[in-house]
Amino acid sequence: MKMIYSIWCSAEITLQTLKVWLLGFIILISTTSFTGATDLDIATDLSPERVYVTTDRDFYISGESILFNVYLFPADESPERTSRFVYLMFRSSYGSIERFTLKVNEKKQASGVIYVPDTLSSGAYEIIAFTNYMRNWGEDIFFTKELLVANRFDNKLEVFEFEPEEFSQVTDSNGVVIQESLWDNEISAINPVRITSPEIAGRRQKVSVSIENNDTNEKNLKTLDLNVSVFPVRFNQHQNHTYTQRLEKPLQYTGKFPMEDQQVLLTGKLADKQSGKPVPGARVLMNTPDTVITLAYSITKENGEFSFFLLPYYYNRDIYLSVDPSSWSGDFNIIINDRFELSQKFRAPEKVKLRISPEEIKRYQDIIRVQKIYQLDNFKPGKDQYVDKGVRPLLYSKPKFSVLPSLYVELDDFREIARELISPLSVRRSQGNYSARMFCTRSSAFLQGSPVFFVDGIITWDLNPLITLGSEHIREVQVHNMSWVFGNMLFPGIVGIFTYSEEYRSIGLNRNKAHYYFDSYKTHPVFTPPVYESGPQKDQNSPDVRLLIYWNNDVQLDYGGKAEVKFYTGDLPGNYLISVSGLDQDGEFFREKQLITIH
User: Fold this and answer.
1) pLDDT value at position 24?
2) pLDDT tens digits along 427-482
3) What tens digit of pLDDT does each residue of 72-98 get?
4) If residue 419 lies in a helix (H) or strand (E), which one and from where to where?
5) For residue 356, what pLDDT is reported?
6) In DSSP terms, which residues pair with 334 in a beta bridge?
7) Closest C-alpha to 336, from 317, 316, 322
């Protein structure tokens, strides 16, 4: 966010200075204001973006991890432009369990890991995913998918209804006769890929799987990214999901929620605390604790709404919002919009039907217990994602001068520090309250009004709580003893106080402010199954009781329309599914499966 500022000390403003100030103000409005789609002509025939989420499987035991991959497909009328951020939540009937703000890559994909806590009850849960832009069409178009969880300490499993299966014999693509119940819920009629794999594999054996473009498919899939997962066939429970398909008749487009194609938007509403009515024309300020002073602001609209572009500088930081008292002096409430507060709640069924026996679930529960005992999670820490913090919205680049109290005799409070070490700052006490004014050396006169104070980057005009800060608390005091224009704000002096241990909390500067934390770019662990390249590794003492044999969410077909993946089996015998899924070039989801038996 660009800010234009100028300075002066004298009481008289020259015409040339006024012209410069007005020019800066015009540039500020043109580069930093955000009006939102409600101020533009709204087209009602626009189509939404589409989000799809694949998971490594459908059924989990508590203590495992859900691996997911997100696909974002653009709206029909603007294929070159999409959002950069997808919001994903794993939730129960009682609310959110885990939330993610995901930044998609150049392929319009993002991936991550959700840990399934041991405290989760057995039953159905849901993944829901959407973009801010999709909110213009309502929550009905959000992607949802049910997942099933069995608590590993649940011996009764009363939430599940175990149904006997009716089988019919079918032949897979390798000619192996299998049971039809293992293969239902195909989404696409003609799968664009064909899988070739061994029918049978031994334990800890290397398996090579070939994936190629289906000859009967007319679509070119050479640049397609695929998800490949290998897991016990009984974990394929075919749960309900919804996907935003192309609409024959476009839904009503509200235009309230802009596309976040550059930065995340922080939005909210300012209301009068007593009446609850919106406050228009007020200046909402945004600060974050730091060793420098930053500032951004937004002017509220007629309905009290405000918005900020969150520059990368604000990622993974505490953000505090307050109101400039010169624009609104009454009591106020700042309501920050939470994208994850959805009106449509997930309603889990009281009973969940499973095509698996209780004995099989208990076997898998025992396997997870063994994994916990031997700490066999097959995950390694992911690499920290470097985020370029870019431009910081500094209030000033360099103060007029600064003071380090540690270089002087220890002083008990800030009033003594001001009197002894900061000659331009005059602090007075009247009827129990403290006030301050700033002397400008250029004009040889006191500036009109009270200077603004920042403690560890948090703004305040109230000097009273700062008085208790002495030399033992304050590391540095920065002084800007001049009138300072920041956008359309005028400060008659600035005092920046930086403490040793975030004293802004102890003196309560964060209590009358709305708090927000943008938790971006979580570092997800990476699934790393064992590799048995040599004999000694095959004979190692640690058991290999993986339920998830393989997961790769970034398999690409080469120019010949082919790809090959290799993995090693574990120690658990049984039937496993090789699942290959993805989106074709038209944004249509497909999934192809192949059976492999480990003995």
Assistant:
1) 41
2) 999 999 999 999 998 889 999 999 999 999 999 999 999 999 999 999 999 999 99
3) 988 876 777 899 999 999 999 999 999
4) helix 414-421
5) 85
6) 270
7) 322
CA distance 292 to 35: 29
Q: What would the 3-class secondary structure string for 478-512 be? A: EEEEEEEEECCEEEEEEEEEEECCCHHHHCCCCCC
Torsion angle (degrees, nearest 10) of CA 496, 499, 503, 504:
20
* pTM (predicted TM-score): 0.85
Long-range contacts (CB closer than 8 Å, 24 or more residues apart) made by 39-42: 40/255, 42/253, 42/254, 42/255
Q: With CA atoms as reference, report the closest residue to 289 among 315, 308, 317, 254.
A: 317
pLDDT at res. 45: 59
- Tracing tokens 């999409």 back to the chain, one arrives at 82
Pairing of strands 193-196, 206-213: antiparallel
Q: Of 38, 576, 591, which is closest to residue 307 (Cα–Cα)?
A: 38
Residue 536's domain is classified under what CATH number?
2.60.40.1930
Tokens found for residue 217: 């498919």
Give strand pairing partners of 146.
Answer: 126
Q: What is the DSSP letter of 156?
A: S
Distance between CA 55 and CA 324 in Å, rounded?
47
E strands present in 235-304? 241-242, 264-272, 283-287, 296-299
- Kindly compute the dihedral angle of the four CA atoms of residues 73, 75, 78, 79, in this order, to the nearest 10 degrees: 30
| Cα–Cα distance measured from residue 524 to residue 522, given in angstroms and rounded to the nearest whole number | 6
Low-confidence ranges of the chain (pLDDT < 70): 1-45, 77, 164-191, 215-225, 238-251, 384-389, 521, 534-540
Residue with tokens 């550059």: 262
* Contact residues for 407 (Cβ-Cβ < 8 A; gap 6+): none
- Total number of domains constituting the chain: 1
Do 570 and 204 form a contact (C-beta atoms < 8 A)?
yes
Domain assignment present for residue 33? The answer is no
Q: Is residue 518 part of a domain?
A: no
Asked, for residue 270, whether it belongs to a domain, the answer is no
| 289 in any annotated domain | no
pLDDT on residue 557: 85
Question: SS3 of 139, please?
Answer: helix
Least Cα distance to 578 among 213, 237, 215, 207 occurs for: 207
Range of the domain at 230: 50-249+342-387+523-598
Q: Identify which of 588, 593, 559, 579 has the alpha carbon closest to the alpha carbon of residue 220.
A: 559
